[in-house]
Amino acid sequence: MTGVTFRIDATDGAARVGEIETTRGRIRTPAFMPVGTAGTVKAMYPEQVRALGADIILGNTYHLMLRPGAERVARLGGLHTFANWPGPILTDSGGFQVMSLARLRQLDEDGVTFQSHLDGSSHRLTPERSLEIQALLDADIRMQLDECVALPADRAEIERAMHLSLRWADRSKTAFADAEGRALFGIVQGGDQPDLRVESAEALAAVGFDGYAVGGLAVGEPQAVMLAMLETTMPALPADKPHYLMGVGQPDDIVEAVRRGIDMFDCVLPTRAGRHGVAYTRFGKLNLKNARHADDPRPLDEAADWSPARDYSRAYLHHLIKAGELLAGMLLSWNNLAYYQHIMAGLRAAISEGRLDNFIAETREEWDRGDLPPID
After folding, report:
1. What is the 3-state secondary structure (H, E, C) of 164-188?
2. Domains in the chain, please, with CATH?
3. Is the terminal CB of the chain with fewer CB neighbours within 10 Å at N or C?
């Protein structure tokens, strides 16, 4: 569609490196999208997020619908102006909350009625209303409303939700109406059932979307199942469109999904872990709450290019966490997002140079080796 294009510049096996071009700027792929659920990436300034290498952030239809309200955001100039983020924004459709807020919603053929987790008020979300909200927010990439099922689940329940999501995909496509300069992604469902995944992917491809997301994974299943579903699904998706794995995840999940042809990721993990005292580094995860860090003068990683990993001691970070200081979550969220963008840049370079397998092996070797040796 006019205004949003996808170009593949190089491949290495199933992995691709390229760019999505939008009216608000380019998105280098593979891309990690920091999650700004309520219009903000938690504990981060927008300028920081951009400086770390993020080309795009994610906003959430359900949460912004409740507060401050999509119509209000529209009156105030749209989400980009409201949140001081001039680059591209992708908005989730509210479909994840169909699963995560199952106790607060009622589902039917037409849509879903939520009881607000904020004040108990009732809100209706249909495929059409979801796209209306995303248009009011003026998101560059918009998602169809779908039903996400937590795993494990019975096959009959997975199949029911998958077919409902396909019917909602048709309605979403009609409601989107080829909005100029914007993109609409369909969402593959099917749980851990290979044939349902393929059926969903083929049906969505027949409808025709600007990109294709794989949903309903990293929702309780082992990594091996997630990767097997990707290996089943990806050949059924149009190769010339972006592929987005929703809600994933751990760095190891990301590198393996890129190996299988995924171009886009989002996850709350880097900022959520940071707020809970966990740092992602090239040596793996470090829990700075642990007492062993209390007297450790070393930084997280003296070779890192980003300040929180290089310029603050583990002892100081441990102290901030124990003291309940806001700076702890700010520094560790900054570190974690920087590390994720560092991984994405490394993946893009490795694919371009045809050395993806070596890059993943070297990265995993550092993770497996673990933390630096303890101080004497």
Report:
1. HHHHHHHHHHHHHCCCCCCEEEEEE
2. 5-266 (3.20.20.105), 274-369 (no CATH)
3. C
